Amino acid sequence: MGLKHDAFPASAAFDAINRSLQSDDAERKDTVKKGNAIFAFALKNKEGDIESWHIDLKDKGLVAKGEAPKGKKADVTLSLSDQDFGLLVSGKKNAQTLFMSGRLKVKGDVMKATKMEPVLKKAQTNAKL
Question: Is this prediction's pTM over 0.85?
Fold first, then answer.
């Protein structure tokens, strides 16, 4: 079952990130070790609807729908528009620029949020947005 939601075109990137994490067991374990956090993404589409996905880099190294794995809490939540998320994962915008312009909101451990960029960069080659 895919993670893409038709009303959120950029959500296809979550499938690409998950494929990237699942493609190499040793690399996934290394990414989990470096990330050591659960990252939640709250995306808002043009209609104003909000959906959430999370990337578990604390235990399993996988991506799923929802704010966090069952019984767990996200260490950091990144809130942005679906369009800006698409620009972020495609490398056309960086997180710092979006944050400074108020288009990316970070709740929780801001320092952990900086550990997300290498994961997004790695998935850029797989994401077709």
Answer: yes
